[in-house]
Design brief:
The structure is a single chain. This protein has one domain: 3-Layer(aba) Sandwich (Rossmann fold). It contains five helices and six strands; from the N terminus they run H-E-H-E-E-E-H-E-H-E-H. It has helices spanning about 5-15, 30-35, 95-110, 135-140, 165-180, and strands at about 15-20, 50-55, 60-65, 85-90, 120-125, 155. A six-stranded mixed β-sheet has the order 2-3-1-4-5-6, with helices on both faces. Helix 4 (about 135-140) links the parallel strand 5 (about 120-125) and strand 6. It is globular, with a radius of gyration of 16 Å. The N and C termini lie close together (about 10 Å). The mean pLDDT is about 90. It binds guanosine-3'-monophosphate-5'-diphosphate. Guanosine-3'-monophosphate-5'-diphosphate binds near residues 47, 90, 130 and 160.
């Protein structure tokens, strides 16, 4: 048996997944993480370092890493790429046009990263409760998601304030990772 399949078997037994939450600062990453973890979302300070949360979802143990998105610390994202099963890319759907362009560029750069090559990608079009929020179809077009050939991807509209569709998105990413990583033996 190859080393890779042994590692997969070990991982399957633990049913553990490593998921990174990334996106520009202020996109709503920390609020999403707190919401899916069932915490009070009313008092959140901007992400300076990183948060790690471990939670159960559909029988899997998720280790979720939330790394800050300010421009000055984006270069540190790559320190967290190793062994990432899933990437959750959070978008402020009501953000300014120039920030949407930053968002497109940063995501495109991430998808070029060799260490993220195997990761499943979920895009959350967050802040749908705001009247000025773009639809997920508009976000998909701005981010040019249709061009992505290298990763399994899916976009879900959501609101971290109301909790709407967060679990639907998490179901999809956990299901896709489970199919890829745990069903190979
Ligand atoms: P980050 O971790 O990506 O940097 P945060 O983002 O989770 O800290 O959220 C940044 C701000 O956006 C917070 O507002 C937060 O309440 C708000 N926010 C997050 N998700 C939503 C959402 O779905 N809808 C709305 N309307 N706001 C959201 P403050 O005012 O605390 O800066």
């Amino acid at each position: 048996m190859g080393l890779l399949s042994i590692l997969r078997k070990l991982k399957a037994r633990e049913k553990e997944m490593r998921i990174l939450i990334l996106g520009l600062d202020n996109a709503g990453k920390t609020t999403i993480l707190k919401c899916i973890n069932g915490e009070d979302t009313s008092e959140i300070s901007p992400t300076l370092g990183f948060n790690i949360k471990t939670l159960e979802h559909n029988g899997f143990k998720l280790n979720i890493w939330d790394v800050g998105g300010q421009k000055s610390i984006r270069s540190y994202w790559r320190n967290y790429f190793e062994q990432t099963d899933g990437l959750v890319w959070v978008v402020d759907s009501a953000d300014r046009p120039d920030r949407m362009e930053d968002c497109r560029r940063e995501l495109a750069a991430l998808l070029q990263e060799e260490r993220l090559a195997g990761a499943t990608l979920l895009i959350f079009a967050n802040k749908q409760d705001l009247p000025s929020a773009r639809t997920k179809e508009q976000i998909a077009e701005i981010l040019k998601l249709a061009d992505i050939q290298t990763h399994h991807w899916h976009i879900e509209s959501c609101s971290a304030v109301t909790g709407d569709r967060l679990l639907k998105g998490m179901d999809w990413i956990v299901g896709d990772i489970a199919d890829r990583v745990f069903m190979l033996d």
